[in-house]
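Reviewer comment 2.1 asked that we show a complete input and output for one of the modelled complexes. We chose the adenosine-5'-triphosphate case, as it is the one discussed in the main text.
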Amino acid sequence: MLKNEESFLPFFKFAVNHVGVGIHAINQDGQTVIYNDKMKEIEGLALEDVGDRSILELFNFEQEESTLLKVLHSGKEQLNVKQTYWNRNGTEITTINDTYPIWDGDTLIGAIELASDVTALEKFVFQPFRKNSDPVTFSQIIAESESMKAVISTAKKAARAKLPVLLIGETGTGKDLIAESIHHELTPSNDRFYTLYCHSSNPDLIEKLRENLNGEEPLSLFCERIDLLSIPLQQKLLAILDAASHENRLFLASIGDDPVELIASGSLLKELYYFFSSFAIRIPPLRKRTEDIMPYISAYLTRRAERFGSALEGVSSEVEQLFHEYDWPGNIRELGLLLDEVTSLATTETVITYDMLPLHFKMKSEKTTEEPKQASDFIVQPGKDLLPLDQFLREAEAYYIQKAMKHNEENVTKTAKALGMSRQNLQYRLRKMKNEEKAP
Ligand SMILES: Nc1ncnc2c1ncn2[C@@H]1O[C@H](COP(=O)(O)OP(=O)(O)OP(=O)(O)O)[C@@H](O)[C@H]1O
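Response of the prediction step:
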Protein backbone atom coordinates (compact mmCIF):
# COMPACT_ATOMS: atom_id res chain seq x y z
CA MET A 1 0.00 0.00 0.00
CA LEU A 2 1.34 3.45 -0.89
CA LYS A 3 2.11 5.80 2.00
CA ASN A 4 -0.69 8.06 0.92
CA GLU A 5 -3.13 5.13 0.88
CA GLU A 6 -2.05 4.04 4.36
CA SER A 7 -3.20 7.32 5.83
CA PHE A 8 -6.71 6.45 4.64
CA LEU A 9 -6.74 3.14 6.53
CA PRO A 10 -8.46 4.47 9.71
CA PHE A 11 -11.16 5.99 7.47
CA PHE A 12 -11.67 2.69 5.63
CA LYS A 13 -11.83 0.76 8.92
CA PHE A 14 -14.37 3.19 10.34
CA ALA A 15 -16.46 3.06 7.16
CA VAL A 16 -16.39 -0.76 6.97
CA ASN A 17 -17.74 -1.08 10.51
CA HIS A 18 -20.36 1.63 10.23
CA VAL A 19 -21.99 0.89 6.88
CA GLY A 20 -25.45 -0.64 6.88
CA VAL A 21 -24.50 -3.69 4.80
CA GLY A 22 -22.74 -6.81 6.02
CA ILE A 23 -19.31 -7.27 4.41
CA HIS A 24 -17.50 -10.60 4.29
CA ALA A 25 -14.33 -10.98 2.23
CA ILE A 26 -12.13 -14.03 1.82
CA ASN A 27 -8.70 -14.47 0.27
CA GLN A 28 -7.77 -17.08 -2.33
CA ASP A 29 -7.38 -19.72 0.41
CA GLY A 30 -10.94 -19.17 1.62
CA GLN A 31 -9.66 -17.42 4.76
CA THR A 32 -11.75 -14.55 6.14
CA VAL A 33 -9.97 -11.21 5.72
CA ILE A 34 -12.85 -8.78 6.35
CA TYR A 35 -15.89 -9.47 8.49
CA ASN A 36 -17.56 -6.25 9.55
CA ASP A 37 -19.79 -5.47 12.53
CA LYS A 38 -22.99 -5.54 10.48
CA MET A 39 -22.16 -9.02 9.17
CA LYS A 40 -21.57 -10.23 12.74
CA GLU A 41 -24.95 -8.81 13.71
CA ILE A 42 -26.66 -10.47 10.72
CA GLU A 43 -25.06 -13.87 11.27
CA GLY A 44 -25.11 -13.74 15.06
CA LEU A 45 -21.40 -14.39 15.44
CA ALA A 46 -18.96 -12.99 17.97
CA LEU A 47 -15.62 -11.59 16.87
CA GLU A 48 -13.70 -14.51 18.48
CA ASP A 49 -15.73 -16.95 16.35
CA VAL A 50 -14.34 -15.51 13.16
CA GLY A 51 -10.57 -15.19 13.66
CA ASP A 52 -8.73 -16.38 10.58
CA ARG A 53 -10.69 -19.60 10.24
CA SER A 54 -11.73 -20.64 6.79
CA ILE A 55 -15.32 -20.09 5.73
CA LEU A 56 -15.87 -23.85 5.45
CA GLU A 57 -15.01 -24.44 9.12
CA LEU A 58 -16.97 -21.44 10.28
CA PHE A 59 -20.35 -22.28 8.85
CA ASN A 60 -20.08 -26.04 8.41
CA PHE A 61 -20.98 -25.42 4.80
CA GLU A 62 -20.81 -28.06 2.19
CA GLN A 63 -18.36 -26.50 -0.24
CA GLU A 64 -20.98 -25.97 -2.93
CA GLU A 65 -23.32 -24.07 -0.61
CA SER A 66 -21.11 -21.04 -0.05
CA THR A 67 -21.66 -18.26 -2.59
CA LEU A 68 -18.32 -16.73 -1.64
CA LEU A 69 -16.51 -19.93 -2.55
CA LYS A 70 -18.53 -20.35 -5.72
CA VAL A 71 -17.50 -16.87 -6.81
CA LEU A 72 -13.90 -17.54 -5.77
CA HIS A 73 -13.85 -20.62 -7.99
CA SER A 74 -15.73 -19.24 -10.97
CA GLY A 75 -14.46 -15.65 -10.97
CA LYS A 76 -18.06 -14.64 -11.78
CA GLU A 77 -20.14 -12.27 -9.71
CA GLN A 78 -23.51 -13.39 -8.28
CA LEU A 79 -26.01 -10.62 -7.75
CA ASN A 80 -29.36 -10.32 -5.99
CA VAL A 81 -29.17 -13.69 -4.26
CA LYS A 82 -31.84 -13.87 -1.59
CA GLN A 83 -31.11 -16.05 1.43
CA THR A 84 -33.38 -16.79 4.34
CA TYR A 85 -31.88 -18.76 7.17
CA TRP A 86 -31.57 -19.08 10.90
CA ASN A 87 -28.43 -17.48 12.24
CA ARG A 88 -26.29 -18.70 15.14
CA ASN A 89 -28.63 -16.98 17.62
CA GLY A 90 -31.58 -18.91 16.18
CA THR A 91 -33.02 -15.77 14.58
CA GLU A 92 -34.57 -16.03 11.12
CA ILE A 93 -32.76 -13.66 8.78
CA THR A 94 -33.41 -12.68 5.18
CA THR A 95 -30.60 -11.06 3.22
CA ILE A 96 -30.09 -10.01 -0.36
CA ASN A 97 -26.48 -10.67 -1.29
CA ASP A 98 -24.18 -9.42 -4.01
CA THR A 99 -20.93 -11.37 -4.25
CA TYR A 100 -18.00 -10.22 -6.39
CA PRO A 101 -14.63 -11.69 -7.34
CA ILE A 102 -11.64 -9.51 -6.41
CA TRP A 103 -8.92 -9.19 -9.03
CA ASP A 104 -5.41 -7.90 -8.74
CA GLY A 105 -4.69 -7.29 -12.41
CA ASP A 106 -5.40 -10.67 -13.99
CA THR A 107 -5.06 -12.68 -10.77
CA LEU A 108 -8.11 -13.66 -8.78
CA ILE A 109 -7.14 -12.91 -5.18
CA GLY A 110 -10.41 -13.38 -3.30
CA ALA A 111 -14.12 -12.68 -3.13
CA ILE A 112 -16.33 -10.27 -1.25
CA GLU A 113 -19.97 -10.57 -0.23
CA LEU A 114 -22.18 -7.56 0.52
CA ALA A 115 -25.32 -8.56 2.42
CA SER A 116 -28.34 -6.29 2.96
CA ASP A 117 -30.48 -7.39 5.87
CA VAL A 118 -34.06 -7.17 4.59
CA THR A 119 -35.70 -9.20 7.36
CA ALA A 120 -37.66 -6.29 8.81
CA LEU A 121 -38.66 -4.99 5.39
CA GLU A 122 -39.77 -8.46 4.31
CA LYS A 123 -42.00 -8.76 7.33
CA PHE A 124 -43.28 -5.20 7.27
CA VAL A 125 -43.54 -4.23 3.66
CA PHE A 126 -43.16 -7.26 1.41
CA GLN A 127 -45.89 -9.19 3.09
CA PRO A 128 -48.49 -6.49 3.66
CA PHE A 129 -51.27 -9.03 3.63
CA ARG A 130 -49.65 -11.02 6.42
CA LYS A 131 -48.89 -7.90 8.40
CA ASN A 132 -52.59 -7.24 8.77
CA SER A 133 -53.14 -10.93 9.50
CA ASP A 134 -55.59 -10.92 6.60
CA PRO A 135 -55.69 -14.21 4.77
CA VAL A 136 -53.91 -14.12 1.40
CA THR A 137 -56.45 -14.93 -1.28
CA PHE A 138 -56.43 -15.01 -5.07
CA SER A 139 -58.14 -11.61 -5.18
CA GLN A 140 -54.93 -9.95 -3.93
CA ILE A 141 -52.75 -11.44 -6.66
CA ILE A 142 -52.04 -9.23 -9.65
CA ALA A 143 -52.66 -11.31 -12.77
CA GLU A 144 -53.30 -9.19 -15.87
CA SER A 145 -51.16 -11.24 -18.24
CA GLU A 146 -52.64 -14.30 -19.92
CA SER A 147 -49.87 -16.47 -18.45
CA MET A 148 -50.67 -15.39 -14.87
CA LYS A 149 -54.40 -15.83 -15.49
CA ALA A 150 -53.63 -19.42 -16.54
CA VAL A 151 -51.56 -19.90 -13.35
CA ILE A 152 -54.45 -18.72 -11.16
CA SER A 153 -56.93 -20.90 -13.01
CA THR A 154 -54.77 -24.04 -12.52
CA ALA A 155 -54.17 -23.12 -8.87
CA LYS A 156 -57.94 -22.91 -8.30
CA LYS A 157 -58.38 -26.34 -9.91
CA ALA A 158 -55.70 -27.71 -7.55
CA ALA A 159 -57.63 -26.28 -4.58
CA ARG A 160 -60.81 -28.00 -5.76
CA ALA A 161 -59.01 -31.32 -6.25
CA LYS A 162 -57.11 -30.95 -2.93
CA LEU A 163 -54.14 -32.77 -4.44
CA PRO A 164 -50.44 -31.99 -3.82
CA VAL A 165 -49.12 -28.93 -5.63
CA LEU A 166 -45.63 -28.05 -6.82
CA LEU A 167 -45.01 -24.36 -7.56
CA ILE A 168 -42.09 -23.76 -9.89
CA GLY A 169 -40.62 -20.33 -10.42
CA GLU A 170 -37.73 -17.96 -9.90
CA THR A 171 -37.35 -16.11 -6.63
CA GLY A 172 -39.95 -13.39 -6.03
CA THR A 173 -42.48 -14.62 -8.61
CA GLY A 174 -45.21 -15.13 -5.99
CA LYS A 175 -45.01 -18.84 -5.11
CA ASP A 176 -45.70 -18.23 -1.40
CA LEU A 177 -48.63 -16.02 -2.26
CA ILE A 178 -50.20 -18.64 -4.51
CA ALA A 179 -49.63 -21.44 -1.98
CA GLU A 180 -51.48 -19.51 0.71
CA SER A 181 -54.25 -18.52 -1.71
CA ILE A 182 -54.82 -22.17 -2.58
CA HIS A 183 -55.14 -22.94 1.14
CA HIS A 184 -57.82 -20.23 1.59
CA GLU A 185 -59.72 -21.48 -1.45
CA LEU A 186 -60.26 -24.96 0.04
CA THR A 187 -63.80 -26.12 0.82
CA PRO A 188 -64.17 -27.41 3.44
CA SER A 189 -61.35 -25.27 4.73
CA ASN A 190 -58.29 -26.55 6.58
CA ASP A 191 -57.71 -25.25 10.11
CA ARG A 192 -54.13 -24.16 9.67
CA PHE A 193 -51.58 -23.13 7.09
CA TYR A 194 -48.02 -24.06 8.04
CA THR A 195 -44.95 -23.00 6.11
CA LEU A 196 -41.80 -25.06 6.37
CA TYR A 197 -38.90 -22.84 5.29
CA CYS A 198 -36.42 -25.25 3.79
CA HIS A 199 -33.56 -22.73 3.73
CA SER A 200 -31.80 -24.43 6.61
CA SER A 201 -30.10 -27.80 6.59
CA ASN A 202 -30.78 -28.18 10.29
CA PRO A 203 -32.21 -31.71 10.92
CA ASP A 204 -34.16 -30.38 13.96
CA LEU A 205 -36.41 -28.56 11.54
CA ILE A 206 -37.65 -31.80 10.03
CA GLU A 207 -38.00 -33.41 13.45
CA LYS A 208 -40.18 -30.49 14.58
CA LEU A 209 -42.32 -31.04 11.51
CA ARG A 210 -42.82 -34.69 12.42
CA GLU A 211 -44.20 -33.60 15.84
CA ASN A 212 -46.54 -31.04 14.24
CA LEU A 213 -47.96 -33.59 11.83
CA ASN A 214 -48.89 -36.11 14.52
CA GLY A 215 -52.64 -36.62 14.72
CA GLU A 216 -55.21 -35.98 12.02
CA GLU A 217 -55.80 -32.23 12.21
CA PRO A 218 -56.93 -30.89 8.82
CA LEU A 219 -54.09 -28.65 7.71
CA SER A 220 -52.19 -27.28 4.75
CA LEU A 221 -48.41 -27.53 4.74
CA PHE A 222 -46.32 -25.48 2.34
CA CYS A 223 -42.70 -26.65 2.05
CA GLU A 224 -40.97 -23.58 0.68
CA ARG A 225 -37.98 -24.25 -1.64
CA ILE A 226 -37.53 -27.99 -1.06
CA ASP A 227 -34.64 -27.85 -3.55
CA LEU A 228 -32.58 -26.03 -0.89
CA LEU A 229 -32.73 -28.96 1.53
CA SER A 230 -29.90 -31.49 1.48
CA ILE A 231 -30.85 -34.80 -0.18
CA PRO A 232 -30.81 -36.76 3.12
CA LEU A 233 -33.25 -34.20 4.58
CA GLN A 234 -35.41 -34.43 1.45
CA GLN A 235 -35.55 -38.20 2.03
CA LYS A 236 -36.60 -37.64 5.65
CA LEU A 237 -39.20 -35.10 4.59
CA LEU A 238 -40.69 -37.53 2.08
CA ALA A 239 -40.94 -40.28 4.72
CA ILE A 240 -42.69 -37.89 7.14
CA LEU A 241 -45.14 -36.65 4.51
CA ASP A 242 -45.92 -40.18 3.33
CA ALA A 243 -46.74 -41.16 6.91
CA ALA A 244 -48.78 -38.00 7.55
CA SER A 245 -50.84 -38.07 4.33
CA HIS A 246 -54.53 -37.88 5.01
CA GLU A 247 -57.53 -36.80 2.92
CA ASN A 248 -57.99 -33.67 5.08
CA ARG A 249 -54.49 -32.51 4.42
CA LEU A 250 -53.02 -30.53 1.56
CA PHE A 251 -49.30 -30.60 0.85
CA LEU A 252 -47.72 -27.91 -1.28
CA ALA A 253 -44.09 -27.19 -2.14
CA SER A 254 -42.04 -24.75 -4.19
CA ILE A 255 -38.79 -25.01 -6.13
CA GLY A 256 -36.69 -22.26 -7.72
CA ASP A 257 -35.72 -23.89 -11.00
CA ASP A 258 -36.77 -26.39 -13.63
CA PRO A 259 -37.39 -29.76 -11.86
CA VAL A 260 -35.70 -31.78 -14.59
CA GLU A 261 -32.52 -29.74 -14.20
CA LEU A 262 -32.71 -29.85 -10.41
CA ILE A 263 -33.06 -33.63 -10.45
CA ALA A 264 -30.24 -33.98 -12.98
CA SER A 265 -27.92 -31.78 -10.91
CA GLY A 266 -28.66 -33.75 -7.73
CA SER A 267 -30.49 -30.88 -5.95
CA LEU A 268 -33.94 -32.46 -5.96
CA LEU A 269 -34.97 -35.96 -4.99
CA LYS A 270 -36.96 -37.50 -7.83
CA GLU A 271 -39.39 -39.22 -5.46
CA LEU A 272 -40.09 -35.97 -3.61
CA TYR A 273 -40.82 -34.31 -6.95
CA TYR A 274 -43.30 -37.09 -7.81
CA PHE A 275 -44.92 -36.74 -4.39
CA PHE A 276 -45.78 -33.06 -4.96
CA SER A 277 -46.30 -32.94 -8.71
CA SER A 278 -49.99 -33.91 -9.04
CA PHE A 279 -50.36 -30.24 -9.97
CA ALA A 280 -47.09 -28.74 -11.22
CA ILE A 281 -47.64 -25.02 -11.72
CA ARG A 282 -44.98 -22.91 -13.44
CA ILE A 283 -45.02 -19.23 -12.57
CA PRO A 284 -43.36 -17.24 -15.34
CA PRO A 285 -40.71 -14.62 -14.50
CA LEU A 286 -41.85 -10.99 -14.59
CA ARG A 287 -39.77 -10.22 -17.71
CA LYS A 288 -42.01 -12.64 -19.64
CA ARG A 289 -45.26 -11.03 -18.46
CA THR A 290 -44.52 -7.33 -18.42
CA GLU A 291 -48.29 -6.61 -18.64
CA ASP A 292 -48.33 -7.25 -14.86
CA ILE A 293 -45.85 -4.46 -14.05
CA MET A 294 -48.10 -1.40 -14.28
CA PRO A 295 -51.11 -3.01 -12.50
CA TYR A 296 -48.78 -4.05 -9.67
CA ILE A 297 -47.40 -0.51 -9.38
CA SER A 298 -50.87 0.94 -9.41
CA ALA A 299 -52.08 -1.43 -6.64
CA TYR A 300 -48.91 -0.72 -4.64
CA LEU A 301 -49.32 3.07 -4.87
CA THR A 302 -53.01 2.88 -3.96
CA ARG A 303 -52.19 0.80 -0.89
CA ARG A 304 -49.42 3.20 0.06
CA ALA A 305 -51.69 6.22 -0.33
CA GLU A 306 -54.36 4.61 1.87
CA ARG A 307 -51.87 3.69 4.59
CA PHE A 308 -49.42 6.58 4.60
CA GLY A 309 -51.22 9.32 2.64
CA SER A 310 -48.56 9.25 -0.11
CA ALA A 311 -49.22 11.60 -3.07
CA LEU A 312 -47.67 9.30 -5.68
CA GLU A 313 -50.11 8.15 -8.34
CA GLY A 314 -48.02 6.67 -11.13
CA VAL A 315 -44.76 6.62 -13.07
CA SER A 316 -43.52 8.75 -15.98
CA SER A 317 -43.59 7.24 -19.47
CA GLU A 318 -39.77 7.09 -19.44
CA VAL A 319 -39.82 5.00 -16.24
CA GLU A 320 -42.63 2.82 -17.60
CA GLN A 321 -40.58 2.03 -20.69
CA LEU A 322 -37.46 1.33 -18.61
CA PHE A 323 -39.44 -1.03 -16.36
CA HIS A 324 -40.71 -2.90 -19.42
CA GLU A 325 -37.20 -3.29 -20.83
CA TYR A 326 -35.46 -4.27 -17.58
CA ASP A 327 -35.13 -8.03 -16.93
CA TRP A 328 -36.18 -8.08 -13.20
CA PRO A 329 -34.02 -10.96 -11.90
CA GLY A 330 -35.74 -10.60 -8.49
CA ASN A 331 -39.19 -10.46 -10.15
CA ILE A 332 -42.13 -8.85 -8.29
CA ARG A 333 -40.18 -8.82 -5.05
CA GLU A 334 -37.48 -6.70 -6.70
CA LEU A 335 -40.11 -4.34 -8.11
CA GLY A 336 -41.71 -4.03 -4.66
CA LEU A 337 -38.31 -3.37 -3.08
CA LEU A 338 -37.57 -0.67 -5.61
CA LEU A 339 -40.95 0.97 -5.02
CA ASP A 340 -40.30 0.89 -1.24
CA GLU A 341 -37.02 2.69 -1.79
CA VAL A 342 -38.45 5.31 -4.14
CA THR A 343 -41.66 6.00 -2.22
CA SER A 344 -39.92 6.30 1.15
CA LEU A 345 -37.88 9.22 -0.21
CA ALA A 346 -40.76 10.94 -2.05
CA THR A 347 -42.36 14.05 -0.55
CA THR A 348 -44.87 15.96 -2.66
CA GLU A 349 -44.20 14.29 -6.03
CA THR A 350 -47.20 12.71 -7.75
CA VAL A 351 -45.28 10.84 -10.47
CA ILE A 352 -42.17 8.64 -10.16
CA THR A 353 -39.63 10.04 -12.62
CA TYR A 354 -36.28 8.68 -13.81
CA ASP A 355 -34.42 11.08 -11.45
CA MET A 356 -36.13 9.48 -8.44
CA LEU A 357 -34.81 5.98 -9.21
CA PRO A 358 -31.87 4.86 -7.06
CA LEU A 359 -28.44 4.85 -8.68
CA HIS A 360 -27.94 1.10 -8.33
CA PHE A 361 -31.12 0.48 -10.35
CA LYS A 362 -30.15 2.99 -13.05
CA MET A 363 -26.81 1.24 -13.44
CA LYS A 364 -28.32 -2.24 -13.59
CA SER A 365 -31.02 -1.24 -16.04
CA GLU A 366 -28.57 0.57 -18.31
CA LYS A 367 -26.48 -2.58 -18.52
CA THR A 368 -29.43 -4.68 -19.66
CA THR A 369 -30.77 -2.17 -22.18
CA GLU A 370 -27.42 -1.50 -23.85
CA GLU A 371 -27.61 -2.34 -27.57
CA PRO A 372 -25.48 -5.40 -28.41
CA LYS A 373 -23.03 -5.01 -31.29
CA GLN A 374 -24.18 -6.22 -34.72
CA ALA A 375 -22.07 -7.78 -37.49
CA SER A 376 -22.72 -4.64 -39.61
CA ASP A 377 -20.84 -2.56 -37.01
CA PHE A 378 -17.63 -4.16 -38.26
CA ILE A 379 -18.08 -3.24 -41.93
CA VAL A 380 -16.44 -0.14 -43.35
CA GLN A 381 -19.29 1.93 -44.77
CA PRO A 382 -19.42 5.31 -46.48
CA GLY A 383 -20.44 8.07 -44.05
CA LYS A 384 -19.49 6.03 -40.99
CA ASP A 385 -16.52 7.10 -38.84
CA LEU A 386 -13.61 4.64 -38.76
CA LEU A 387 -12.55 3.27 -35.40
CA PRO A 388 -8.91 3.18 -34.28
CA LEU A 389 -7.59 -0.28 -35.30
CA ASP A 390 -6.98 -1.56 -31.75
CA GLN A 391 -10.53 -0.60 -30.65
CA PHE A 392 -11.95 -2.24 -33.79
CA LEU A 393 -9.98 -5.45 -33.11
CA ARG A 394 -11.06 -5.52 -29.45
CA GLU A 395 -14.75 -5.05 -30.34
CA ALA A 396 -14.59 -7.56 -33.20
CA GLU A 397 -12.93 -10.12 -30.93
CA ALA A 398 -15.57 -9.63 -28.23
CA TYR A 399 -18.36 -9.93 -30.82
CA TYR A 400 -16.88 -13.10 -32.34
CA ILE A 401 -16.29 -14.75 -28.95
CA GLN A 402 -19.81 -13.92 -27.76
CA LYS A 403 -21.32 -15.42 -30.92
CA ALA A 404 -19.10 -18.50 -30.63
CA MET A 405 -20.13 -18.99 -26.99
CA LYS A 406 -23.80 -18.69 -27.92
CA HIS A 407 -23.33 -21.15 -30.78
CA ASN A 408 -21.84 -23.64 -28.30
CA GLU A 409 -24.57 -23.08 -25.68
CA GLU A 410 -22.18 -21.10 -23.41
CA ASN A 411 -19.91 -24.15 -23.05
CA VAL A 412 -16.38 -22.77 -22.52
CA THR A 413 -14.55 -26.03 -23.30
CA LYS A 414 -16.35 -26.55 -26.64
CA THR A 415 -15.96 -22.91 -27.66
CA ALA A 416 -12.24 -22.88 -26.81
CA LYS A 417 -11.77 -25.99 -28.96
CA ALA A 418 -13.66 -24.44 -31.87
CA LEU A 419 -11.61 -21.24 -31.63
CA GLY A 420 -8.33 -23.17 -31.42
CA MET A 421 -7.28 -21.82 -28.03
CA SER A 422 -6.87 -23.19 -24.53
CA ARG A 423 -9.76 -23.11 -22.08
CA GLN A 424 -7.74 -20.86 -19.76
CA ASN A 425 -7.01 -18.42 -22.57
CA LEU A 426 -10.70 -18.19 -23.47
CA GLN A 427 -11.68 -17.78 -19.83
CA TYR A 428 -9.15 -14.98 -19.47
CA ARG A 429 -10.60 -13.20 -22.52
CA LEU A 430 -14.18 -13.64 -21.29
CA ARG A 431 -13.27 -12.10 -17.93
CA LYS A 432 -11.48 -9.24 -19.64
CA MET A 433 -14.52 -8.59 -21.85
CA LYS A 434 -16.76 -8.56 -18.80
CA ASN A 435 -14.55 -6.07 -16.99
CA GLU A 436 -14.40 -3.83 -20.06
CA GLU A 437 -18.20 -3.98 -20.34
CA LYS A 438 -18.46 -2.79 -16.73
CA ALA A 439 -15.91 0.00 -17.08
CA PRO A 440 -17.69 3.38 -17.47
N1 LIG B 1 -48.79 -11.50 -8.63
C1 LIG B 1 -48.51 -10.81 -7.49
N2 LIG B 1 -49.37 -9.90 -7.03
C2 LIG B 1 -49.10 -9.18 -5.91
N3 LIG B 1 -47.98 -9.33 -5.20
C3 LIG B 1 -47.08 -10.23 -5.62
C4 LIG B 1 -47.30 -11.03 -6.78
N4 LIG B 1 -46.26 -11.85 -6.94
C5 LIG B 1 -45.42 -11.60 -5.93
N5 LIG B 1 -45.90 -10.63 -5.14
C6 LIG B 1 -45.23 -10.05 -3.96
O1 LIG B 1 -43.83 -10.24 -4.19
C7 LIG B 1 -43.19 -10.68 -3.01
C8 LIG B 1 -42.54 -12.01 -3.24
O2 LIG B 1 -43.54 -13.01 -3.39
P1 LIG B 1 -43.35 -14.48 -2.84
O3 LIG B 1 -42.66 -14.48 -1.52
O4 LIG B 1 -44.67 -15.16 -2.92
O5 LIG B 1 -42.32 -15.02 -3.95
P2 LIG B 1 -41.66 -16.46 -4.05
O6 LIG B 1 -41.77 -16.86 -5.48
O7 LIG B 1 -42.23 -17.37 -3.04
O8 LIG B 1 -40.13 -16.12 -3.72
P3 LIG B 1 -39.04 -17.05 -2.99
O9 LIG B 1 -38.83 -18.26 -3.86
O10 LIG B 1 -37.81 -16.18 -2.96
O11 LIG B 1 -39.58 -17.37 -1.63
C9 LIG B 1 -44.26 -10.70 -1.92
O12 LIG B 1 -44.23 -9.47 -1.24
C10 LIG B 1 -45.56 -10.82 -2.67
O13 LIG B 1 -46.59 -10.19 -1.96
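The chain has a mean pLDDT of 82. We note this here for comparison with the apo prediction described in Section 3.2.
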